[in-house]
Amino acid sequence: xxxVTQSPEALRLQEGESSSLNCSYTVSGLRGLFWYRQDPGKxxxxxxxLYSAGEEKEKERLKATLTKKESFLHITAPKPEDSATYLxxxxxxxxxxxxKLTFGTGTRLTIxx
Amino acid sequence: NAGVTQTxxxxxxxxxxxxxxLCAQDMNHEYMYWYRQDPGMxxxxxxxxxxEGTTAKGEVPDGxxxxxxxxxxxxxxxxxxxxxxxxxxxxxxSYRDRGPGANVLTFGAGSRLTVL
Lengths: 113, 116
Description:
heterodimer, A: 113 residues, mainly beta, Immunoglobulin-like, 5-stranded antiparallel β-sheet, B: Immunoglobulin-like, 7-stranded mixed β-sheet, 11 strands
């Protein structure tokens, strides 16, 4: 069964304190990995898509990386406005041609001023 | 540019009552989706549609029905609500660049449903 695990569940950082969020997956037929940001009371908002091991993408203070077993979302010198829940999702295509997007439970990030 | 709009934002139902959640998108997206989000669980796909007049079951379809009579609208219905359907429901839409599980999703703000 496809599994997506995000860690830690929650993370509190001081403003400017860099860290990384992890998304590990056990799937067959990975076709892509997505990162979304979700603010309280709102829907998820797209950040990145990664397709192959070794790929990296950056946006402002965020950088997403991908290996064959996990993805990291690195946050450099975070600001309070980076506080949110970060979700990862893996796109899998089975041998039967079925496609599925499986979401992790998210990491709730709080940046303290 | 409104994106994806969900109505209502909040609703309280009694067990056995019925209701419909409405999703509207103005981006001309071909695909539309309904997800539910529960504490400690990832977003789970209820139903989706790859085009006007078509619908398909997702991961957790039981107890829900959907319709897509117009390209821009996707309705989620609960015929007989149960407490287990208490959740936050998100509608999403996407272009048809790849298959239904592969595209970047644009989400609505969510509809919080409580079933007593």
